[in-house]
Amino acid sequence: LTLGGTTTFSYGYIFNIRTRSNSGVVLVNGLDFYTESTTDERFELWSRADSFKDHKGNYNGWDKIASGTLKGRGIGRYTPIPEEMFEPVSIS
C-alpha cells in the first residue's frame, strides 16, 4: 500500500456495521476502496455475521464476498467493486 509516497503494508481494514434495533434489513451490494495506484490491484473482501472481535488472524466463521483484480483509479478517486464481483450481504 502506498499513500503519500510512503509504502506501508496492511492486511486490510476491519470494522463492524450494525443497524438500529427498529430498523429493517440493510442489503450491502457493493463497496468502493481507495488506492493511489492506477495499475492492477488484487483485493479480497470478507464478511462475518457477528463482531470481528476475537476473530482476527483466522478464516473461521468468515465468508469471502468479493475477490479479484481491478485497475485502481488513482489519487482522489474511489475504485468500485463491480456488482458481478460482489456477493450481497444483509445486515439486520
Characteristics of this structure?
mainly beta, single chain, 0% helix, 92 residues, two-stranded antiparallel sheet
Walk me through this protein's architecture:
- The protein is 0% helix and 36% strand.
- The chain is an all-beta fold and 92 residues long.
- It contains no helices and 8 strands.
- The strands form 4 sheets. The chain has a two-stranded antiparallel sheet with strand order 1-2. Strands 3-8 form a two-stranded antiparallel ribbon.
- It has strands at residues 2-3, 6-7, 26-28, 32-34, 40-47, 63-71, 78-80, 89-91.
Quick summary:
The protein is an all-beta fold and 92 residues long. The chain contains no helices and 8 strands. It has a two-stranded antiparallel ribbon.
- Please count the beta strands (DSSP E, at least 2 residues each): 8
Helix content, binned percent:
under 10%
Mean pLDDT: 86
Please work out how many helical segments DSSP would assign.
0
Contiguous low-pLDDT stretches (5 residues minimum) are none
Largest sheet: 2 strands, antiparallel
Rounded to the nearest angstrom, the radius of gyration is: 15 Å
Structural class determined from secondary elements: mainly beta
Side by side, the strands of the main sheet go 1-2
- N-C termini distance: 33 Å
What characteristic shape results from the CA principal axes?
globular
Relative strand content: 35-45%
In sequence order, what are the helices and strands, one letter per element?
EEEEEEEE
Write the layout of secondary structure elements.
Blueprint lengths: L1 E2 L2 E2 L18 E3 L3 E3 L5 E8 L15 E9 L6 E3 L8 E3 L1
Antiparallel strand pairs: 1-2, 3-8, 4-7, 5-6
